[in-house]
# Entry
Amino acid sequence: MNKRILYYSEGEHKLASARIRVTNFVKQLQKLGYNANFTSNINYINSEDIVILPKTAHQRVVKEIRRRCHKLIWDVCDNYFADERQDMAMAILSCCDSVICTTNVMSEIVRKHNSEKRIDIIEDPVYYGFKEPSLDLN
# Structure
């Protein structure tokens, strides 16, 4: 495959949120045969790349990524439309080609702000290999 799928983030990819939404996702894409990777270097992005932007970024960075890449996908795992990040979220939403959400509820929130964008749902990977989840409040 010629196109690369790049997760772009200026953040630390050793954090739990990056491991869940970026590292594991990239590994699964690689298993499927895609040329997928993580980068924090905006200069690494070229015009054939599909770039996935997790979380939020400064509008200047988003516009530069959009200018450099073939497609920009925004990975939304938090409601950035409900707090002081709303303007940033709207700017990213206007620049991206499509959106990945973690839940149906989040996809509906995004859809309220832009009904034209393609929205796919990819849940956070949760592993229950040791024991079934349970909650005992007594």
Remarks:
- Strands lie at 4-8, 35-39, 50-54, 71-76, 98-101, 118-121.
- The longest strand covers residues 71-76.
- The CA atoms of residues 74 and 99 lie 5 Å apart.
